[in-house]
Specification:
single chain, about 725 residues, alpha+beta, five-stranded mixed beta sheet, about 50% helix
């Protein structure tokens, strides 16, 4: 099979590469010793003779982009030679000419670490269009491990953006522009690299909306000279008046960037001439803190005396600062030529807070804040003021402002931030409580992992679930997040309470069979003697069959008898159908027995919850109380088959009025307001009350259980019909 011919540089690209290489050599050679020069020269020469394509998949010449990145980096800051060498060698590692192990051997861990960081960031940068941008920036910062890597990637993005004008692949250009705007421009802004940030945003607008960019640029170019003259004409007299007032200040004026102007035009829905703050003027006053407000208002009064102020555009964030701490006095005045100009007055301290503190400029513009504030501002301080060279100071600076947080993708491309050490189980609970509660494991980067697998930066995690899975006590030792731990504890407590209810009912039933009246104080003495710290733990063990209720009652009887000195003896002949007036629940409602026996104590069975109008029967329980069951009760067949001699007829007397509980199961779409609509219907029904409600939703479907207090089944049937009319309700059944 004939091999594909190797892609070569054009004559023009060869000349461009040679010129750039010469310029890079001038920048780099004085920084290297003789051994490093020889090693780098031999490495590059060997790479030139390798049979590899000179362009990437989009036709961009690799050598040109690499050299331009190095030169642009050297122009921006004063880099150490390791950064420039890493930029060159990274391209050769990317092309497969060099192995990272060889780089580490020949050049050391620092340069190898820079290349590892660049490769890690590049690996995921193409995914960012499908992810949450704030989290993606966090992933990039976490992967880089070195702030110098971030700056290299920002500069490389700028160089690439400069080189793709009129590239034939419009979709690819748009994706590159999106990444530059949403990722690298934001990072540049946080680092205080405002010039790069502005250029990246302008180029992004140029490639995504060339028509708008061209129109604004053309209008600005037409008026640049007059605009600069206007700013000077505006500032000079203001400056003179402020000096006359004895104020110590700095005044700045500039025209906003094209992308910033376009954002203003969209927000204010006006054309270019209608933008109030096309000219950005800022007066920064050096004054003690106790005089800040007074001096800012003095400066404003001088400006207002010179130019007519627009009171509707006045913004006083000095008297009442923004919630994020931002303090400044904004005024819009009619300047020379009837042009609106916005002027900001603030003290040096206020400006520092606005630029580098709590209300940093990027947050003031509406970008969501996170815990990179202090870290990013420290980096910016180093860039601006480090005497020994900012890049040298950054060598040992950890570039992970998120501490030990990690970032992981879902199969759909959503990106989540988790605490360091987060496991598969943490990730599952982070997505949704129900997913966490039923998690059985995960597929991570295509491989099956257990619940305790610790998430790594950039992992793609697909959670596996099972309907039969339930939270377990040992899960608490697996998870690291507070949210997951609290949800597991909540679920375990609910399960324990459910078992405790079963255990308590079992014990009470067995005690009644033995004609024992349980005393709480005696029970607690015995329970503590058995080693339990609380009643719920004891009842939960009863419900889970870990403790024998019969043995407990034997011990209880012994304890009581030891206290009273006598033993209660009960025979089968002593059983009789008791009456208990104090437990009577309305003899006018039910007629019990063939001959309408009066004075019988009865209760409505909890297992089926009969209400007036249901077909019912009575069951004489072991304590002599008649329990009323529905004919369709789940336990009816068992009762009739095993205890036919204890079944007694029961009929409604024809008088209703007693409010009894009935449980409804409702299934429907998980729409906003559906529960409120159901509750509203119930609240408008006479003699109907909502006693309890529990809702569980999954995949857009909710299932709810409503316990309503109601007088008869006809009213219940009517209520069910009304609930079925609610939009989104699929089914309503009585349970």
């Amino acid at each position: 099979m004939e091999s594909k011919p190797v892609d070569r540089l054009s004559f023009h690209e060869l000349r461009q590469t040679a010129a750039l290489a010469s310029e890079m050599r001038d920048r780099l050679w004085p920084r290297l010793d003789e051994r490093e020069r020889t090693l780098l020269r031999d490495t590059v020469r060997a790479g030139i003779h390798e049979d590899h394509d000179a362009h990437d998949s989009k036709g961009i010449p690799t050598a040109v982009i690499t050299l331009q990145t190095g030169i642009a980096f050297a122009d921006m800051v004063d880099p150490d030679h390791n950064i420039l060498v890493a930029i060159i060698l990274n391209a050769m590692v990317r092309l497969g000419i060099l192995d990272l192990a060889d780089v580490r051997r020949d050049w050391g861990d620092d340069i190898a670490g820079l290349i590892e960081g660049m490769r890690a960031v590049k690996k995921y940068s193409g995914k960012n269009s499908a992810t949450n941008q704030e989290n993606f920036r966090g992933l990039v910062l976490a992967l880089a491990h070195d702030i110098r890597v971030i700056i290299i990637m920002i500069v490389e993005s700028l160089v690439l953006m400069r080189s793709i004008n009129r590239h034939p692949d419009d979709n690819w250009v748009r994706n590159v522009a999106f990444e530059a705007d949403c990722l690298y421009a934001r990072l540049a802004h946080r680092l205080g690299l405002y010039k790069i940030k502005g250029e990246l945003e302008d180029l992004a607008l140029k490639y995504t909306n060339r028509e708008i960019y061209t129109q604004i640029a053309h209008k600005l170019n037409e008026t640049k000279r007059s605009r600069d003259a206007y700013i000077k004409a505006f500032i000079d007299p203001v400056k003179a008046r402020l000096e006359e007032a004895g104020l110590d200040f700095e005044i700045k004026g500039r025209t906003k960037s094209i992308s910033s102007i376009w954002n203003k035009m969209k927000k204010q829905k006006v054309d270019l001439p209608g933008i109030y703050d096309l000219f950005a003027i800022r007066v920064i006053i050096d004054t003690p803190r106790e005089r800040e407000k007074m001096d800012c208002w003095t400066a404003y009064s001088i400006l207002a005396d010179m130019y007519t102020a627009n009171p509707s555009r006045m913004k006083d964030w000095i008297s009442l600062p923004k919630s994020n701490g931002y303090e400044s006095l904004h005024a819009t005045v009619m300047g020379p030529g009837n042009k609106w100009v916005e002027v900001q007055f603030r003290s040096r301290r206020m400006d520092l807070v606005a630029e580098k503190g709590l209300a940093a400029h990027w947050r003031y513009k509406g970008v969501k804040a996170d815990n990179t504030d202090q870290w990013m501002n420290n980096i910016r301080d180093i860039l601006e003021s480090a005497d020994s060279g900012p890049m040298q100071l950054m060598k040992n600076l950890n570039a992970d402002p998120f501490g030990k947080e990690v970032f992981a993708f879902t199969p759909k491309g959503d990106l989540f931030r988790l605490a360091g050490g987060a496991t598969v189980l943490d990730f599952a609970f982070h997505i949704h409580t129900n997913i966490g509660a039923h998690c059985t494991g995960a597929i991570v980067n295509g491989a099956h992992k257990r619940l305790n697998y610790k998430i790594q930066n950039g992992d793609t995690v697909e959670i596996l679930t099972s309907a039969s899975q339930q939270p377990r006590q040992e899960w608490l030792s697996i998870v690291n997040s507070t949210k997951a731990r609290n949800k597991i504890k909540q679920s375990l407590n609910e399960e324990k309470q459910r078992l405790a209810d079963i255990g308590k009912e079992t014990l009470q039933r067995r005690a009644k069979n033995r004609r024992l009246e349980l005393d709480d104080a005696v029970m607690m003495r015995l329970i503590r003697k058995m080693g339990y710290k609380s009643l719920i733990d004891f009842f939960a063990d009863l419900g889970e069959d870990k403790t024998d209720p019969g043995r407990f009652l034997d011990n209880y009887r012994d304890l009581v008898n030891r206290g009273s000195g006598e033993e209660e003896k009960v025979s089968a002949e002593e059983f009789h159908l008791r009456t208990a007036p104090e437990e009577k629940q309305g003899a006018d409602v039910l007629v019990i027995g063939e001959k309408s026996l009066n004075g019988l104590s009865y209760r409505f069975a909890k297992c089926c919850g009969p209400i007036y109008g249901d077909d019912v029967f009575g069951f004489i329980s072991s304590d002599g109380v008649v329990k009323i069951h529905k004919e369709g009760c789940p336990n009816a067949a068992h009762i009739r088959a095993r205890y036919p001699y204890r079944v007694i007829r029961a009929d409604w007397s024809g008088k209703s009025g007693q409010v009894l509980p009935a449980t409804l199961r409702v299934i429907g779409n998980d729409d906003i307001g559906i529960v409120a609509n159901i509750s509203s219907i119930i609240s408008h029904e006479n003699n109907v009350s909502l006693r309890n409600i529990s809702i569980d939703s999954h995949d857009g479907i909710f299932q709810g259980y409503l316990v309503v207090g109601i007088t008869d089944n006809r009213q219940l049937t009517s209520l069910i019909k009304k609930i079925k009319t609610v939009k989104g309700v699929k089914d309503v059944q009585r349970t």
